[in-house]
Amino acid sequence: MYYYSDFYRILNSLWFIFLSFWKRFQFTHLIIKIQNKPQNMPLNFELNEDQKMLQESVKEFTERHVAPTVFERDNSKEFPHDLVTQLGEMGMMGIYHDPGFGGSGFDTVSFCLAIEEIARWDASLALTVASHTSLGTGHISIAGSDDQKKKYMPDLCAATRLAGWCLTEPGSGSDASGMKTTAVKNGDHYLLNGSKIFITQGSVADVYVVLAKTDPDLGTKGISAFIVEADWEGVKPGAPMHKLGMNSSNTTEVVFENVEVPVENLLGEEGMGFVDTMKVLDGGRVGIAALSVGVARGALEESLKYSMERKQFGKPIGNFQHIESKLVDMATSVEAARLLTLKAATLKDNGKSYTKEASMAKLFASELSVQASLDAIQIHGGYGYTKEYHVERFLRDAKLLTIGEGTSEIQRLIIARELKKSFI
Ligand SMILES: Cc1cc2nc3c(=O)[nH]c(=O)nc-3n(C[C@H](O)[C@H](O)[C@H](O)COP(=O)(O)OP(=O)(O)OC[C@H]3O[C@@H](n4cnc5c(N)ncnc54)[C@H](O)[C@@H]3O)c2cc1C
Questions:
Q1: Please, which residues have CB within 8 angstroms of residue 382's CB and are 6 or more apart in sequence?
Q2: 116 in catalytic set
């Protein structure tokens, strides 16, 4: 009996020795593999040359043409047609769309970099670019036929025409499936009736993508999307809404009254509008996350500058520990938000699932943009509460980012649902 258990103990030890050698061998093999192929490292925080060039050119454009006039636009609340035209000429209004249909062919990471740069100074303009690119134009790019893309995308990408995306209604926001707008097939056209609210580019768009019920009995499977032109009879945009912020972004109601939509303007398959909408929103949320990073970075940079200039008790306020802590927390969170955003963008660019990551990026970055703006106002003291400084505008603009394209509560619902999926 004694000899028998000894034999097993020796066998056991030999097995462990073998295992430890095998693990060491595997680890060494992995290191050699990585050393031989450093360019294939899965985590690479370096932007490529195209991305850097794009980032630099948008930064230069924004500092020269956008920043100097941002107070004026916030006060006048006028839509900046001239800036949008210039951005269109630069290829920014179709930045990640297919060059075969007039897009610029950059990746989503580049789109995020561009949106961050614009939002650093003017969140309203960034919202115009992001919503036009990801929502209206984005839906046509995701679900459109080649003929529809040929007809609409080149003008939209060049911003000679602008896009609005009509999902929300007075009675249905977070629960978009509760929409009342209907599209009833009648021979060679659908008859569209309903009312949409909070539509970005509502009264400046030339083309809308409108979600409507084609079969009210089928729930989300009875929702379809349509391309509707603004000058068709029965399309009635309302006056710009009075908002807390995002003043020079155009937001209106749009009413559709017996609008005859040709059957060829059904976007995607009948009944697939809701499914495509979820894809559009995933992409849109990455854009809103990038926009939020831009606003939060603006709050940080303005606060840093101010805290080095403003003196109290004989020294710059930036030397007081309480102010330093705020700056440190802002800087760390901006970095974290950017990483979440670029991760979601990279997943999208690689054709991977990114619903959870887009919601995480949007949730974290948008909530940060509000907190960073509040902290920036605090750092600016009484001056931060006036319209002489950028930071009060940052706060007014930032609040929208926790609401549009799904509120923070809805992002939490999505993230929870995605987390639970891994256990089903
Ligand atoms: C400036 C601006 C621009 C916009 N642009 C567009 C656009 O271009 N196109 C478009 O279609 N829409 C647009 N929207 C609409 C926007 O997407 C909606 O406002 C948003 O989805 C919220 O819907 P709601 O306003 O109806 O709020 P509700 O859905 O009524 O929500 C009210 C509150 O209840 C909470 N809530 C709702 N359901 C739940 C739940 N299940 N669990 C927990 N909390 C919940 C919400 O989080 C929120 O706090 C825009 C809105 C604004 C303000």
A1: none
A2: no
